[in-house]
């Protein structure tokens, strides 16, 4: 009965392992290591197998793989040159471990998220960086607004700041903007980091779960074959993973084997070569070669000697000659002839001989490719071909060993260049047909996102280059530029294929181009350097040149090198003024530079070129929103949503515009809809929280901020927004905790620093407030709200001239901010410059007719001018707008008494009740209410309770400013109403004594 549960590939692997001959010492070295205790004397965790092509490295590695699995219970994975990045290497390992029941589930889930986020970053819109909004210390209309999204910052996966063309500060700013943009587009800061630095995010998870696997099995062995090809992209990552422990410490029963042609790069591995077990492979010894020949039934001494001489004892050729089983030494012929040519002579069946040659043409083989290469409708000969010794199995496909394939290609190209060209053209057509069939199932703009499509396109390109190198070169360069658009790993595949096609056709310029592209480095500037090289090629077409400049412009923009980006976009548009992608890209660059009018000009053009593109419309809408042209913003957002009703970020952008307009119900509707479409998008949840805060729905606001922060604990602006909400409901300790956390996450977050200053101001910790306002203004010298808030702090400290200086500066920067103008009016009133005060209050109320505290301030000014009717009108209006304005209630009570109104007593009792309720609370708010209650009791008058309340207040107050404020209010009371000095003076003296001791 056939063994159950064993795949064909596993059966072939075991069978080949059982036939393995030679390299006994090398096999023994590895087996002996697996028989040791991990960490014991002589134990090795890192092997390096190296030798010339054809020396049997792959065969040895596969034998080690078989022994480790079958004899020692190991789980293994084999990675070869089909990977072109650390991310792809980890994915290959995880996939193979999963087939052995040891999958890395958390890693696989995160990898799937990475691919999804990368797709979003490459093909859809990315949000603009969050804008720092402004607030006022006396109004809950202050906003921590977030721009939920500017369409289309198309990001390359893993791109870090470009370091060779911009200074360090510019690079840092570019990285911050890019991170903010991605955070705004994606669900969380972590998603943005995943796209920006996939290796740094994925590797710790990979290492952690690999460790968990290693705890359940005796050994985990990872093989990296053909390492001479993958070393440039894997060296640093593997060193950090295996030696440096940058991603966590792997257990010692995780063994890694590197196998390649050359020595390891001393620049990477030099200081740890002593911990690497070197396993050099040379040609077979004579005994090993004879052993292999004997195992194949070749024992005739004359035949053995000829084969040894012809093959040079190169293992792959010895095996190939042995597998042919020649019986006559004369058939081997002249030792100068190649072993491959002699091997073909020993295949008696002409069809099989032709098949072997034809199947050397493709880079890889499966049954379909076999049919296309051989020209047979059936693939009956494929299993026979796959069993040949020089055919290497590779995850459902196979390929020829390069030592055998290269001379076979040379033989065919030399024998008939015309037939060579026809055969490759036929294969190119086959791959082209398969590609077109697949395209019918894919989105029109999603071809390059599909790995199978890219493989088909790449193989088609290879065969087109082999058929007619010079004719196919321009199209191949265009595809290579498109590969740049898809990221470094895809570009490396194209570059490697260009190199292979150049070598196989003996086209030096093609080989050199491919090699130059591969040698441009592994750092963040790789794509920029590659595009720069491609732009120097003389045969590049105008269309390709336009695309290359556009993509390079994007790379410069993503790196924060905006001037370089503009230069590229301008060059692209000089070649093609109607290239919408370059128009849009330049507009986005202008947006990030704060050059909004130029951005708008480009977005207008982009919409003109593609009027039904929802992304273009939403992008223009975002610029209109930034320019406060809200009607036009809404028009564009409405149109974009009509075209694409399920784009959460566009709906959220419209919600943001409604929020800016104060149309909170509509804003809330849009944010609810956007969250329904995308329930875990941090930016949108927090933006809904901001709308709830502006609607005074503080508990709902806190719920949203809590949810957003739970999803992304590193989102500084959401933490600061929650802090602002805490401040508004007088939970100052929690507000300070959040502000401190937000500033720790982002030390240059000017809005959070100024808002913390505002919290200190609410606590009357004026010196701390000034420190924060000064810092915020140092970070942003034109930060009008922070300047005005500092002015308000100076006013509360009675430093009126400094207050006026700040208010004047803030109003000069932003002439229409009602709060700043009213704050200056309050300062003028304190200086008894009543006419100036009235002018400012009138202006502020004209700008914001419902600002209750400004109306009450004008009422106080009228009261100081003894215009009591006008004062009472303003106080009543302020109380109508804000029934909880306790101080306005008190001031109206004073005016009513001065007017001899019958309603005065009721108003005094109302003020008394309001301040009693406040004083019964907790925290600094209760202290200030206690001081105000003392003033009301003196005004009633109720002297017995007033004297008692003075003691209560002094025992509770924590700073001199609270005492000073009560003394000022009592002085105002003495000036406004007839007060019994014999009763008031002892209270004043008691307060002054406490002030002198504070």
What integer is the average pLDDT?
83
Task: State the major sheet.
Answer: 5 strands, parallel
E-strand count: 7
CATH class of the domain at 8-102 and 217-281: Alpha Beta
Tell me the structural class: mainly alpha
Which residue ranges are poorly predicted, with pLDDT under 50 across at least 5 consecutive positions? 15-20, 123-187, 332-337
Looking at CATH, which topology of the domain at 8-102 and 217-281 would you report?
Rossmann fold
Individual helix count? 51
Distance between the termini: 97 Å
**Which band does the percent of strand residues land in?**
under 5%
Radius of gyration: 39 Å
Please name the fourth-level CATH homologous superfamily of the domain at 8-102 and 217-281.
Answer: P-loop containing nucleotide triphosphate hydrolases
Give the strand order of the largest sheet, numbering strands 1, 2, ... along the chain. 2-3-4-1-5
List keywords for this structure.
4% strand; five-stranded parallel sheet; 68% helix; mainly alpha; Rossmann fold; Serine Threonine Protein Phosphatase 5, Tetratricopeptide repeat; 998 residues; 51 helices; two-stranded antiparallel ribbon
Question: What is the gist of this entry?
Answer:
The chain is mostly helical and 998 residues long.
